[in-house]
Amino acid sequence: MSIVKMENITKKFGDKIILNNFSLDIQEGEFLAITGASGSGKSTILNIIGLLEGFDSGKLILDGDENIKINSSKSNKILREKIGYLFQNFALVDEETVYYNLHLALKYVKKNKKEKDELIKNVLKQMNLEGYEKRKIFELSGGEQQRISIARLLLKPSKIILADEPTGSLDVKNRDLVLYYLNKLNKEGKTIIVVTHDMEVAKKCHRTISLN
C-alpha cells in the first residue's frame, strides 16, 4: 500500500525548474534512499513530502490524504501525527534545554507530565545521555546533538520519517548510530525516506533512486 505518492510534480524557483513532472510511489514500511548531485532536487522532494514547501503542479498523496495546503489545519494535523524529521543541522532550539526540546516532541501526546518525564528519562538513557535534561543544546557536541535529534524522533508520533543528510557531518561511530536507529524505526513499521550523498547509507536502504 502506498503511503506517499507524488504524481507529475513540477516545482520551480523563479525561472529554474527543480522538478519536472516528477513521480514517486513509496510503499508503507519502505526504507528509501534518494541520491544525486547537489541541486538535483533531493531536498526539495523531502520538503514537499514533509509539507514544508508547496509545488506548482501535480498531485501529492500522503497516507490517503490529498489536496493538502501548506499551513492549513489539515497539513498541521498530518505534521503532528504522521511525520518526523531528522536533519543534518539537527533543527534543535539551541538556547533551550534538552528537556525542553524533547518535551516539544510530546506536545500533542495524551499523557500527563509525569508520564512524559519518564519517557524523556528513558530515551536519554537509551542514548547514553542520562541526566542531560537540564543541559543547554549549545553546550553539547555535534554527536550529542544528533543523539538528541534521534531521541526526539523516537518520542514523536510518526508514520513517515524524513531524514535530510542525517549523517553528513558525523564520524563513522555516530553515523552507524543514526543508521541503527533508522533501521530500528523501520522494523517497527515506519516508512523512512533518506536524502544522502553517502553510499554506505544508501546501501542500508531497501531501494535507492538517483536524480540526475
From TrEMBL:
Keywords of the record: ATP-binding, Nucleotide-binding, Transport
Positions of the ABC transporter domain: 4-212
PROSITE patterns: ABC_TRANSPORTER_1, ABC_TRANSPORTER_2
SUPFAM superfamilies associated with the record: P-loop containing nucleoside triphosphate hydrolases
A molecular-function term among this protein's GO annotations: ATP binding
PANTHER family named in the record: AMINO ACID ABC TRANSPORTER, ATP-BINDING PROTEIN-RELATED, SPERMIDINE/PUTRESCINE IMPORT ATP-BINDING PROTEIN POTA
Name used for this protein in its record: ABC transporter ATP-binding protein
Organism: Clostridium tetani
